[in-house]
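Input structure tokens:
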């Protein structure tokens, strides 16, 4: 097994998310493209943390709408495609290496791109529902609009507002990831699942609110997992 260099602090978003964390059935750890936070060692350390705390772990890296996002930020089509290919090649290697080092038989640890879920019936159903909600649910649309504005803040010259094209690409990216925030158990066939990321999920406030509306399933949880100082075992 590869040597681990980091321990992690874990903050479940709600008390019910803590219950799901304590169950330890499954964790999905999201790995973002183009994010320097996800070094080779950190991806391996996150996977090792997952295996210590959960029966099954999925490392899922985003590979959808990457070229389109670079285009939206002003790159030409050729350069956008080249950057996307380079970033995804490196990301795939980090995930593949972590699985090979920690669980070569893949009995408990799996690594896959988000695009591998596109043919999954539960994923497809949720994705269709999200497209409908964008057109019909004001609360969901408001949250998505805030996400678009936050993403493009300081990324556009002179803080210009996002164009219609930029907004559409960003929303497509958000909606591609959102099913894993809503109901990973239905998609991957696990009893419960904790979605783990180093930042608060952008939809968390909406998904874990009380009352009607777009909500995470009862078997879905979210936790913020961040590196803790060496020797601090909190959250392990």
């Amino acid at each position: 097994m590869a040597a681990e260099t980091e321990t992690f602090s874990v903050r479940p978003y709600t008390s019910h998310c803590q219950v799901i964390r304590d169950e330890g059935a499954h964790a999905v750890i999201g790995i973002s493209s183009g994010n320097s936070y996800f070094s080779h060692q950190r991806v391996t350390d996150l996977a090792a943390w997952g295996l210590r705390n959960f029966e099954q772990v999925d490392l899922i890296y985003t590979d959808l709408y990457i070229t389109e996002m670079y285009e939206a930020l002003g790159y030409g089509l050729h350069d956008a495609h080249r950057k996307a290919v380079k970033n995804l090649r490196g990301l795939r290697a980090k995930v593949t290496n972590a699985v090979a080092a920690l669980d070569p038989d893949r009995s408990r640890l799996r690594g896959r791109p988000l695009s591998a879920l596109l043919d999954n019936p539960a994923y497809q159903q949720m994705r269709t529902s999200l497209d409908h909600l964008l057109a019909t649910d004001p609360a969901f649309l408001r949250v998505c609009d805030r996400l678009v504005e936050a993403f493009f803040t300081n990324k556009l010259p002179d803080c210009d507002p996002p164009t219609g094209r930029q907004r559409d690409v960003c929303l497509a990216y958000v909606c591609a990831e959102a099913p894993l925030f809503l109901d990973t158990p239905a998609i991957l066939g696990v009893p419960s699942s904790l979605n783990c990321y180093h930042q608060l999920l952008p939809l968390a406030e909406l998904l874990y609110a009380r009352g009607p509306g777009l909500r995470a399933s009862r078997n879905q949880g979210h936790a913020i997992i961040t590196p803790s100082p060496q020797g601090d075992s909190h959250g392990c």
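DSSP finds ten helices and six strands in the chain. Residues 7-228 form a domain with the Rossmann fold fold (CATH 3.40.50.11710).
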